[in-house]
Amino acid sequence: MIHRRTVLRTGAALTGALGGAGLLGPAVAGSAQATELDPTTVPQFQRAMPVPGVLRPVCRSGMTSYYDMSIEEADAEILPGRLTRVRTFNGNFTGPVIHAVSGRRVVVRQTNRLSVPTSIHLHGGHVPQSSDGSPMDLIAPGGGSKTYTYPNKQPHANLWFHDHAHHQESETVYRGLTGLYLLTDDVERNLDLPSGKYDVPIALRDARFDDSGQLVYSMGDFKNRQVLLANGRAWPYFEVAARKYRFRLFNTSNLRFYLLQLSDGSAFQQIGSDGGLLERPFDTASVFLAPGERADIVVDFSRYAAGATLILGNAGGLLPGDPADQVGRVLQFRVTGPAEDTSSVPSTLRTLPALGSATVNRDFVLSMDETGATMDAFINGKAYDMNRIDTEIEYGATEIWTVRNANVYTPHNFHIHLVQFRVLERDGKPVTSGPESGLKDTVTLRPGETVRLQATFTGYEGTYVYHCHMLDHAVMGMMGNFRVSRTATTARSESRRHRSHPR
Fold this sequence. Notes:
By secondary structure, this protein is mainly β. It has three domains: 157 residues, Sandwich (Immunoglobulin-like), CATH 2.60.40; 143 residues, Sandwich (Immunoglobulin-like); 138 residues, Cupredoxins -  blue copper proteins (Immunoglobulin-like). The chain contains five helices and 34 strands. Strands 14-13-12-16-21-18-19 form a seven-stranded mixed sheet, with no helix packed on it. It has a six-stranded mixed sheet with strand order 25-24-27-32-29-30. The relative contact order is 0.16.
């Protein structure tokens, strides 16, 4: 069995209580003794938010685009006037972005120049096991390389890629090893949504710094990460014309939840989630994002006069004593003036595939020690073991999974590799509209909450993982292996043994 590092058991303590939708789980003190940076000394809304650069393929051949990436350390000016050492793809923080098209393969050669192993996972990608970025399918440090093949045999979706090397992923992702992967298809391209410079990806995360401007990392350290970043800069501003913009929002934080709202309380349209566009847009004044989740929104700035400013605020995950002027603010929009706008958001965006009939029902219970005595986390009472297959699935099967958070204070979320799923119910209430009505790969479970999911396991055979995407929880053991095989046994006795509660 893979044992979690001894250091995870050192100095474990609960450092607070649950607030909003946020987590304060067991925290492990870091080794650095540098003086903490006071977040209130970081100027806000004085630097422009960058738009992540698009990575160009090194070549194209037939229906395949080839990319080379170097996983390396670099310096980034996250805070004004200071350089922070980060872990990156090709020296980009945040980024880069790969633009992909359904039906056209992407092949990426990753070379790991870090001092720790890595494994690159395309989050939300429907890919063969060999390119999934398994927690133990490692790229050796110091120059090891691996080639990942992404067939893109799935509809459009806002995907992202990040490190998934077990025991390393929490720190390496926190230190910056993330990138965006925007997959499109004819369904999306045939719509007249805002495009070009009016279609902007925004990667959100939080951070903690010492007084020299370096990142401070500790397991479970939610409360002290009080500097919010948008596309790699602390509290930036972004200039917008008085017209519609499409913002693709990615929560790349390890632990933080966001409830995003405009400072004037005005509504916008949410048009998509993890697995691409919803069937229909809906008006909302807020959007909720757990770690790993994505949301696609359209904001119409034509209602504002030139010179107006708005703050994209965060009302989620605030704890007693949290500085609202820091963790309650994300970025500032500055309206510059009118611009031509021929874009529109249609009343129907897409048609989702029929759910089909499920033949197997399974239960999954997420739990972790909330006392601080240990750093243990489990699925169905078991911590992750790379050598154990927890769930055998017949290739092509459609299954319903009932997932429950057994904890009293601590939220979790649940991410399944290989497939996109549909959320059927949340605490017994059917999900028929809103942000969870589309295709999903990550779903939130607040303390005591239960969700029912349906997925069809087809396309590829092999061993994949499901886990809490609060990455520190995955490191602590909240992860399991499932194997998809044409020879898997899904007898009725197994279905009865794993049967979820009736609807």
